[in-house]
Amino acid sequence: MGSRPMWWSASPPLPWGRGSGKWWAMGGPVALKAVGFLLLAALLFRVLCSFPSSPAPALQVTKGKCNLFSGEWIPNPSGPAYTNASCRFIDDHQNCIMNGRPDKVYLRWKWKPYGCDLPPFDAVRFLDSMRNKAWGLIGDSILRNQVQSLLCLLSKAEEPIEVYHDKEFKNRRWHFQSYNFTVSIVWAPFLIKSDVFENENGISTSEIQLHLDILDASWTSQYESFDYIIVSGGQWFLKTAVYWENGVVIGCHYSQNKDLVELGFEHLYRKTLQKVFSFIISAKHKPVVFFRTWSPDHFENGEWFNGGSCNRELPYKRGEYKEGYIERVMRQIEFEAYNKAVAALRGSDSVDRLRLMDTYSLSYMRPDGHVGPYRTPYPFAKGSKKATSVPNDCLHWCVPGPIDAWNDIVMKMALDR
């Protein structure tokens, strides 16, 4: 994948959505003070609202089968299925080893569901089963992160050819010729129609405009071409934005226009998922759709803007992770929307085609697997002042890394239906 896609085009947004675009950009002195005040308030809010809790229970893959999402990380002396040297599909920003990460223990764990085994990804078996099929991964940079892992795993059987990319390399497609199999990443961070105003440097020049009643055509126009789909929402829903319905502004989330009604990110996420699942249920085309749940970040001792980091080198033990307010709210919205969709499909032949891919629990146990400061090459010499000045990326995952387990699960869910 190389270094062409700019990493900040899908970087962690300002906490709770204040600001958009390149997240270190600031305006004048007055704007800086205002932003600083809001960020401080947000940080205090997060601290007050973050406390230990039990995450929402993961649903079973299918009735009577093992719950792939409830388990633990166990040592894996053999290490990952590929390396950054053996795979050319890793974006530079997730190539932690190339960028100087010195520890390697994070590479030697595997996910073990309770009561059953999760086989490692078998590229030949997967490709054989997917002859003449097409996969679409719809969402933001976390799904792009997952695609890197998937391509690395699949390339052990055959190297794909990139057959399409847009100007910014956000939408891309690869073809495995021997199997006539394609994998596409569809850039749709909000899943609904969005007007994002960013210049060539990624700096926002105006607030995002979101149309809650219109789905993003970038994925709905391709929907019928996919046999399997992975779709998800993420941290983009926390950004500052103005909300529209029926061609009229109905409210906002942290808009500078104080005359607008503050509806909050919860309203946006709930309405969006209702719209997405309604489309999936009513569409004549019936692909297998995996809805992937929230991907946690692991900032500690602050956020990206004030020295927050993710320096752990070992997974969390069960019960050690402190789930925050945002995670609880967004996951509750996800479960409610998914369960309503399943209930609407109950009794039809399509009910088994909508599946929950609840990678949240296994992911929150891996604070050691994020990119951290190793998102770009720079001198990591002992005592280097640069090492403390680089903002950490504690949202995206190193490749190879824990995100490979997501694709082990994808294979199990897709082939053992």
TrEMBL record:
Main location: Golgi
Residue ranges of every copy of the Trichome birefringence-like C-terminal domain listed in the record: 118-413
Ranges that cross the membrane: none
UniProt keywords, alphabetically: Golgi apparatus, Membrane, Signal-anchor, Transferase, Transmembrane, Transmembrane helix
Source superkingdom: Eukaryota
Keyword Lyase: no
GO cellular component: Golgi membrane
Residues of the signal peptide: none
UniProt xrefs under Pfam families: PC-Esterase (PF13839), PMR5N (PF14416)
Entry membrane topology: Single-pass type II membrane protein
Protein location: Golgi apparatus membrane
Listed PANTHER family: PROTEIN TRICHOME BIREFRINGENCE-LIKE 26 (PTHR32285:SF27), PROTEIN TRICHOME BIREFRINGENCE-LIKE 9-RELATED (PTHR32285)
Protein name: Trichome birefringence-like N-terminal domain-containing protein
